[in-house]
Task: structure prediction
Amino acid sequence: MIDQLPQKIVGSCPLDCPDTCGVITEVQDGRAVNFYGDPDHPVTQGWLCTKVRPFLDEFVYHPDRIATPMRRTSKKSDAPAFAPISWDEALDEIADRWNGIIDRYGAEAILPYSFSGTLGTLQNYIAGARLFNRMGASQLERSICGAAAAAATEYTIGRKLSVPYADVIHSKLIILWGTNPISTGPHFMPFLNKAKKNGTQVVVIDPRRTRTAKQAHWHIAPKAGTDGALALAMANVIFAENLHDKAWLQQHSLGWEQFEEHVAKYTPEWAAEECGLEAETIVKLARLYATNTPSLIKSADGVQRHTNGGQTFRAIVSLPAITGQYGKLGAGLAYSTGGFYKWDSEQFNRWSECPKPGRWVNMNRLGAALTGEIQDPPIMSLYVFTANPAASTANAALVRQGLLREDLFTVVHELFMTDTADMADIILPATSQLEQIDVHRAYGHTVLSINEQAIPPFGECRSNWDTSRALAKAMGYTEQWLHDDAETVIDELLANSKTAGVSELSVAKIREMGGSYEPSVDQQRPWSDGIFETPSGKVELFSQAMADDGHAPLPTYTAPHDVTPPAGELSDALSLISGASHYAVTTVFGNSNGMKKHNPEPFVEINPADAAARGIANGDRVEIMNGRGSVQVKAVVTDGVRTGVAIAPKGHWAKFHGGKNINWLTPDALGDLAGQSTYHTNLVWISKV
Result:
């Protein structure tokens, strides 16, 4: 008898990365036996990053998967203990508790909390919207990641659009501003390397000499949070030396003369002091950028996670305008393609059949919200899925304090016993990506992909959508759009899309295409027609909409400011950046063998001069502290980080490291635009233990 060959199932990587890789799962006898990149995916082309390659062993078949619903049997202040229960018992208890809370406090006392454990359109966004909209629960302002840049982009150039990866081979200069794609978007790198071979110059702006910076022609390391000052000083030089594209500005921009007058005060000498750079460096960078066309600025979310992040991004987005780069092949801005696909809001949310939307709760203020900042009514129940806020949300000590409330009814839908699951009242077992269907849009490119279910759910696990359906039934909600099967919901979403060509698609048609749909090249390339989706149809360097909303209408600069009371003399403080790990995606894979092998112990990178001033040697145990808390980690003394800055990568689960991680230090203050997180405006004091 000849053994059957494994069946190949097409899917998509669901994690918080701009690449959204195409993947293949080989399945035999109902079990996934191989997992690798889809060679036919038009962008990611058959290879996977170091985080995802061991996905089967490190995630899908990890021995610690939760297999059944569980109910808490211990006090929250004690060591966590749970007992298995049936799905019917879990659903009945959740519905009873929620209905009791609604009767006493109103539905706004219930808060759903989710973010980027999966970026699937159905399993994250729709599954998290419809049920709670129908309920009238509080709305979550999901602004941890890119809210400020999204707002700044919308005010200035319209939707979040981005130059395609492949276009960079035409660029003469690429500035990677606060982004480290080797670790956070590696499928950009083959295109970048090809561009370098063609003679493209690469500049990296980052306080840390990242893996990407090591491969650049020039690395510039400003002080943390001063990127806006650098961008405005570059604009100053470009205007002062008549390097701006006046004809382009006259035709395609609004308020450029006001902007020119405005940036006259942001001299290179002023910015040099602010940024910790030489004035000559700023002048050289401005000239290099303005005299090389096409030039591309590629940025990411790190630069906006400061108290001044929105205006910083406004300043950066202005540079391609004053040099006339927008719309040219290989030029302009590469930030996010998240605005490319336009979904119908009604199809997503079903607002017309729901109560008036509940109040908004900013996710960055979760700890404060759970401990009294939110009242009338207070938050009495939290429903967590695709997120691990006890480990990943700012000011984590306060988040933990809130989660330990015995009167807070917390339901966590999860694959593993995370820091958050440890404090749940009810735990529901969740599927992995291989056990569910979804549709994925990327934020680094414009390929739309279907993720097929490859294997049966592990144990009694259910997807986010199937769990939402079950909860809707338990709550007595009868609307059909809460109970439709997954493929029906996806088909209706596609049919109602406002993006050209997408309304003709369906799950079946994308299957016929091999699992992914790629728009035409002309459709992918933004701004080539010189038209921008702003009120004026132009780049709005002066934004009346910003003025109407109470913000400075021209890109401006205010120094970052940590509002928490200090733990020492300000002269001894360092700016702590908790950037991305090379081995985890936020806290996903925090329990993986890869994380334990390659990044087993939390560490902080510190410049030799800063280390010497504190009597710290490489490998020493150090304490990092500020007014929010303290953690102990290993010191890594390196000249790869500039003076005045310390780097401590995120991603560790607190439960594996003495009950704390780096987010015990990060601030929950909000930034200048859109309720943005401010993780990186974080003053700390470091001393040897």
Observations:
- The first helix runs from residue 55 to 60.
- The first strand starts at residue 7 and ends at 12.
- DSSP finds 23 helices and 27 strands in the chain.
- The domain at 570-688 is CATH 2.40.40.20 (Barwin-like endoglucanases).
